[in-house]
Design brief:
flat; two-stranded antiparallel sheet; 8 helices; 256 residues; mainly alpha
Length: 256
């Protein structure tokens, strides 16, 4: 697993971190994992021919021509006077680079936009333009261009990972809230309400389910050779196991 993980990290470090999905995957990290599994290295238009050449050198594969035309760095610009505040672009942005709220004007954070284009299609009023990124245009030397691309890649990776963690947390909170609603419904369905023993049994059952989910997430992360996801799943499994042990202890004879 370590060898695979190291190669995936090295591949991911060469990708531009636009998180655009043009490679057919929902982000640069998933594409790095796919390349490690044998997928072609020429499916990244934002990376261009230089990225293909670097990937070829790293993986020992031939530097194939790009499947799609190379793409220079772009910036999404919202024509704010036409924005209806639908939040669809906010939901689509893989790096959380759009500010706004429902029925309020939206605006792109230029320094954090990767030019992925994913916000354009969902816009129901077609008020988003793609323009050459000003920072790229302002770079007058190869050194300045490389520095800009390095900054964009670092920030794009950080914000993509932060968004994935946020979405995972929100999904976990929604799942817990659904469980609470089920418990409340069961409680209302009983005239006298659940006994303390029944409450402890319900807690133990919920903890068992949490342990199973954490194990499934860990197994999936291990199959994907995703070290970061493995660490998160291991932490969740440890926490769920502790809750299960406490719940089972409360069911033991003589427990208060």
């Amino acid at each position: 697993m370590t060898g695979h993980s190291n190669l995936i990290e090295a591949i991911d470090a060469l990708l531009p971190q636009t998180q655009c999905g043009k490679c057919g995957h929902p982000g640069c990290r998933p594409y790095a994992e796919a390349i490690d599994a044998g997928e072609p290295i020429n499916r990244c238009p934002p990376g261009g021919e230089k990225t293909v050449a670097r990937l070829a050198e790293l993986t020992g594969r031939p530097p194939l021509p790009l499947e799609q035309p190379a793409q220079l760095p772009l910036l999404a610009v919202i024509r704010e006077a036409e924005c209806i505040g639908c939040t669809k672009c906010i939901q689509a942005c893989p790096v959380d680079a759009i500010l706004g709220a429902s029925k309020r004007m939206h605006s792109v954070i230029a320094a954090e936009c990767t030019g992925c284009e994913l916000c354009v299609a969902p816009c129901p009023v077609d008020c988003i333009d793609l323009v050459p990124h000003p920072e790229w245009q302002a770079a007058s030397t190869d050194t300045e261009r490389r520095a800009y691309l390095a900054r964009r890649a670092q920030l794009g990776r950080q914000r993509y990972q932060a968004r994935q963690q946020r979405l995972t947390r929100l999904e976990r909170e929604k799942r817990l809230e659904r469980q609470r609603r089920v418990i409340r419904k069961e409680t209302r369905g009983s005239h006298s309400g659940p006994t303390p023993q029944r409450q402890r049994q319900m807690a133990a059952k919920a903890a068992e389910q949490a342990v199973r989910r954490a194990r499934q997430q860990l197994e999936h992360a291990q199959r994907q050779h995703d070290s970061e996801a493995c660490h998160r799943a291991e932490a969740q499994l440890q926490h769920a196991t502790t809750l299960l042990e406490e719940a089972r202890a409360s069911l033991a004879p003589g427990s208060p």
